[in-house]
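G., the chain you wanted modeled:
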Amino acid sequence: MRLIKIWVLIGFVMMGLISCGDEPIEQTNTNTNTNTTINKIMALGASRVEGNRPQHESFRYETWKSLIENNWTFDFIGTQNDPGSYPVIENLNFDPDHQARGGWTSGDILDQLESDLDQTGAPDIVLFSSPGGNDGLQNLPYDEAISNINDIVDILQEVNPNVTLIIEQMAPGRSNIMTEELLYYFNQLQDEILTIVENKSTATSQVIAVDMYTGFTDAMLADDVHYNTKGAMFIAQRYYEVLTQVLVQE
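Predicted structure as tokens:
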């Protein structure tokens, strides 16, 4: 009788395993500083990172999709969680973690960054989206935005001296909002990002500029500043091309 009971128990276990086989697998989304996954990636910024389906898109899903389809091991980290619905890829659910809040300026990001990093732990790679973009839209001082961006880089390198920072030379807004003043601010900032890259790169921490403006058009925007699907795919591809050069392989 004991032997029969054992075989019955094994049968139930096997049935349970089989019944779970078709469920999408949740990719690890660990928001603690004990996360030991390689290639912890933090998407940092404001609404272009955050997204707001279906009104406008973030580049994060398309970046995640490319990484999954090419068999990279990674984990998106952040204190914020995207509630949008996204297609399952290779039996994996989208990793919705990010570090962005709509409308935030460089000063807002800087003020909150250390607290956020206490929760997430140090990233290995940071995708720094549209740095200073909302500062320009809100007519905040240019020099203050540059100082904030430099301080953000310093904090990230302090928590992880080996961090790789990929900083956007950001895509423009829709042509009809790019006033003479905003265009001047935008062009200044594109040049300044190259200076930051040169000054902040160290022997252990790469700071890399990624050109998001060359080839970007109004047809890639859902509204004055946010991406539609075409725009999100464009930005994601630019990020992916850099990521493949810096990700650690298992």
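Residues 1-23, 25-32 have pLDDT under 50 and may be disordered.

Shout if anything looks off.
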